Amino acid sequence: MKYKTFIFDFDYTLADATVGIVQCSNYALGQMGLPPESVENIRKTVGMTLPDMLCTLTGISDEESGRQFYSLFLSKADEVIADSTVLMPDTVTVISSLRQRGIKTAIVSTKVRYRIEETLNLMGIIELFDLIVGLEDVTEPKPSPEGLLKAIEHFGADKDAVLFIGDSLIDANTANNASVDFAAVLTGTTTHEEFLSLPHVYIAKNLTEMMEFSESV
């Protein structure tokens, strides 16, 4: 296998937190006196920072509103996100298979690290990952390559042997900015056609198909 380090996005790549994210988003919007948004509109913002989410949903872009939305969202998330998050059907199988081969595994996400850790601890699978890099661990979120490069440096990995797997154009741009290979999974809201516009080594229906590709190179 060419790749010795597999680094994953979290939301819509390894797990689905739609139920909780919708609750938190509409709670924050309501507290700010704004109307609720549809599930589909909110799903399309997953992977963005919370201020960017607010801007995309409402057009509101000032820093104070962004901070308010961030604070309100996180206060609700403390109550609902971990319990309402579910893993993608093949997450455990794929990551376990990688670990059995001695492959290093990590997560790089715009989600706060402590939330990912809380979720994985609740599911009893945090030991499947060598490293988690979240929003609080970087000065610039994705598509800045900072988090991805931090993970690569942590492992002392050769970039040619690193594969970053994600479900969004933000993830594709992050890999491109870090000069590492990118494999897309179609388990989020980004289509096959949209991924064609950015560098990638493979576009997979899911993690299982991504794994099959990685075994062939």
Please describe what this structure looks like.
By secondary structure, the chain is an alpha/beta fold. The protein folds into two domains: 5-16 and 86-215, Rossmann fold (3-Layer(aba) Sandwich), CATH 3.40.50; 18-84, Putative phosphatase, domain 2 (DNA polymerase, domain 1, Orthogonal Bundle). The protein has helices at residues 18-31, 39-43, 50-58, 63-84, 91-100, 113-123, 146-155, 169-178, 192-195, 207-215; strands spanning 5-8, 15-16, 86-87, 104-108, 131-133, 162-166, 181-185, 202-204. Helix 6 (113-123) links the parallel strand 4 and strand 5 (131-133). It is globular. The mean pLDDT is 97.
> Helix tally?
10
Number of strands: 8
In whole angstroms, how far apart are the ends? 6 Å
The topology string of helices and strands comes to EEHHHHEHEHEHEHEHEH
Question: Which segments are poorly predicted (pLDDT under 50) over 5 or more consecutive residues?
Answer: none
In percent terms, what proportion of residues is strand?
Answer: 5-15%
Domain module count: 2
CATH class of the largest domain: Alpha Beta
Largest sheet: 6 strands, parallel
**What strand line-up does the widest sheet have?**
5-4-1-6-7-8
Nearest-integer average pLDDT? 97
Give helix % range. Answer: 40-55%
CATH topology of the largest domain, by name, is Rossmann fold
User: How would the global form be characterised?
Assistant: globular
Give me the CATH superfamily of the largest domain: HAD superfamily/HAD-like
Structural class: alpha/beta
Gyration radius (Cα, Å) is 17 Å
Give me the CATH architecture of the largest domain, please: 3-Layer(aba) Sandwich
